[in-house]
Write a structure and sequence with these properties.
single chain, 442 residues, three-stranded antiparallel sheet, 16 helices
């Protein structure tokens, strides 16, 4: 199936590669040259030539979408949309963490990305996407958009040992994140946030749960019920990361304790309101709840998703509630699950019915404990290639030549990670440590 030495040899060689491209233009972003990443792609070999081509294209994709900004930060567009999403950019650069420890040029890129995100979170913590000149591109409040930069920074720190990213600017970003999450715990009472795409501008009625209200899903679609369980799970991970950063790097015990207190309240809310008994499956995690007894049972391909809970670091793949939920999600009982001649998997209400997202397929493989299932997922991903050797937003389960978004960086980055960890033997890079969390027992 593969020649594992190709990527491993490339990983060992990164320290020998040339520098990142030169001086910044005074008033515009400049494209990046990352010879180390290019070398990793060039030297990767696999007996499956199609996989070899797709991995090479996927690994290089983020480098084509990243730019060095005039202020020394770095900027990553999503693909064919000219803006940076906090969520997408964090996920797009995640595979480069595998190169950061040995390559100072990759560390420079990642530091620049984290530095820019810290500025975004101070400008408007309710915005999910920004332009190169720091203007708000979309102000859709997505709870995961606050969590992603923190988990990226934590993972960068744990991978490289570099604490230089934790400056005063990042500290202020953490303050903004925490204050916003605390405010949105009681959205009806404390928040002034509204958006025209949300029901009645400020959402349907909710009960107090300890969880954090969010307006939009990671798909950028408005929530139906505003406690989005996958995003709550991710917030638990991010708040734990924040607590460790505050305690170990900034030596601020007060802020660390605040983050832990909020994390534990959200966790109790998930375990109290987020689990629903389904006779065929047992207790499963709902996708959205309102704290008043209503729930939506489904999932969405965009991450955080319920399927991604172990990948996020929220729970273990063998957790019974997760296994129950996974069985439901990967079945015809899930309204967002589709099956056709070429693929079977989870789609999104953001795209047409019967169109599966490569993001969900890759996540199925990343969270599987079965090598046979991982191989099946890989085969479906290879079969989805319309000829450009890239993954796209979604595709028709019967005809992959019909797809959405010509350029979409996120699934290609996640595919790189899938190959590196599940087929090349590299250890997964964690997003946080939730080993001390308490989970409800049946």
């Amino acid at each position: 199936m593969r020649e594992a030495s190709g990527l491993r040899n490339a990983l060992r060689a990164f320290a020998l590669v040339a520098c990142v491209a030169a001086a910044l233009a005074p008033h515009a972003a400049s494209s990046l040259e990352l010879p180390s990443i290019e070398r990793a792609a060039e030297t990767y070999t696999n007996s499956n030539v199609h996989l070899q081509e797709m991995f090479r294209a996927a690994l290089l994709d983020t480098g084509t979408l990243a730019q060095q900004a005039p202020d020394g930060t770095a900027y990553v567009v999503t693909g064919d949309i000219p803006a940076e999403w906090l969520r997408d950019a964090s996920a797009q650069v995640r595979p480069y963490l595998y190169f950061a420890k040995d390559d100072p040029n990759v560390r420079q890129l990642l530091r620049g990305i984290i530095e820019r995100m810290a500025k975004y979170m101070q400008i408007d913590p309710y915005a999910n996407a920004f332009t190169l000149d720091y203007r708000v591109f979309e102000q859709k409040f997505e709870l995961d958009s606050l969590s992603y930069p923190v988990t990226l920074a934590w993972s960068y720190w744990k991978t490289t040992g570099d604490t230089s990213i934790f400056n005063e600017d990042f500290s202020r970003a953490l303050d903004s994140m925490l204050a916003t999450m605390q405010r949105e715990q009681n959205h009806p009472r404390d928040s002034r946030y509204t958006h025209r795409e949300i029901f009645n501008g400020s959402g349907r009625a909710v009960g107090y749960t300890g969880m954090i209200w969010t307006g939009f899903r990671p798909s950028d679609d408005a929530c139906f019920y505003n406690f989005l369980i996958p995003s709550e799970m991710f917030a638990v991970v991010a708040l734990g990361d924040m607590a460790e950063i505050e305690r170990s790097v900034y030596h601020n015990v007060v802020k660390s304790s605040e983050a832990i207190a909020l994390r534990d309240e959200v966790q109790r809310g998930i375990q109290t309101y987020g689990l629903v008994l389904v006779p065929k499956y047992g207790y499963v995690y709902a996708y959205e709840v309102d704290g008043l007894g209503h729930a939506i049972l489904t999932d969405d391909a965009n991450i955080p998703s319920l399927l991604s809970a172990p990948y996020l670091g929220y729970t273990m793949p063998a957790d019974q509630f997760y296994l129950n939920t996974r069985s439901f999600l990967l079945s015809q009982d899930n309204p967002s699950f589709y099956q056709g001649r070429v693929a079977r998997g989870i789609g999104s209400f953001h795209t047409p019915d019967h169109w599966v997202w490569p993001l969900a397929l890759v996540m199925q493989g990343l969270t599987s404990t079965s090598q046979a299932e991982r191989q099946d997922v890989l085969n479906e991903l290879l079969a989805s290639d319309p000829g450009d050797h890239l993954l796209h937003e979604s595709f028709d389960v019967d005809d992959p030549s019909r797809f959405t978004r010509q350029a979409f960086g996120w699934p290609n980055a996640l595919f790189s990670e899938f190959v590196i960890t599940q087929f090349e033997g590299q250890a997964e890079i964690p997003m946080g440590d939730t080993s001390d969390l308490e989970f409800r027992s049946e």
